[in-house]
Amino acid sequence: MLYHCIDIKKCIPDYHVDNVYALDAKKLHERGFQVLLVDIDNTLMSYDEDAPTDSVRRFVEKVRGEGLEIVLISNNRKKRIKPYANALDVPYVFSAKKPLKRGFLNALDQLGASYGKNAVLVVGDQLLTDVYGAKRAGLHAALVRPIRAETEKWFTRINRSIEKKILRKIQKRYPEEYKALELHKR
Ligand SMILES: [Mg+2]
Q: Domains plus CATH for the chain?
């Protein structure tokens, strides 16, 4: 199985929160983060939504208000991602092919300035694409709980079953991190 080839340590996020709104932009800024690369599906909206909610708009405003840059990064298609990002007036990368590094680096290329990898936090709901991809690219990662897992497509459901196995490995090999990050809540 695929997950046997995965470096389990690279699947451990730096933060684990209920949702994006639990991320305090001010604190993130104080910790040295200057850029958020944010996943869309099940991180900002569920699969049955198509436009940014007021809460998402406020979140983006708050992040920018703290002086952080934000780029949306999704494995989904242009048709879904472009109108969403345009409605929020933020740069974006579609068909990012996470967990490959390239999409994350493309997302950083969307910005006018260049940032050190330590200044970049990837935010997403999947261990296998968002966290593992971020770590492979040398970036930090915040894992959120999926907004509505029951509307997920079949390929995401496969990722989730692999995620469960990875979580069990993290629990076994890195029990302290597992506990501190409250990964049992996944
Ligand atoms: Mg997602």
A: 2-185 (3.40.50.1000)
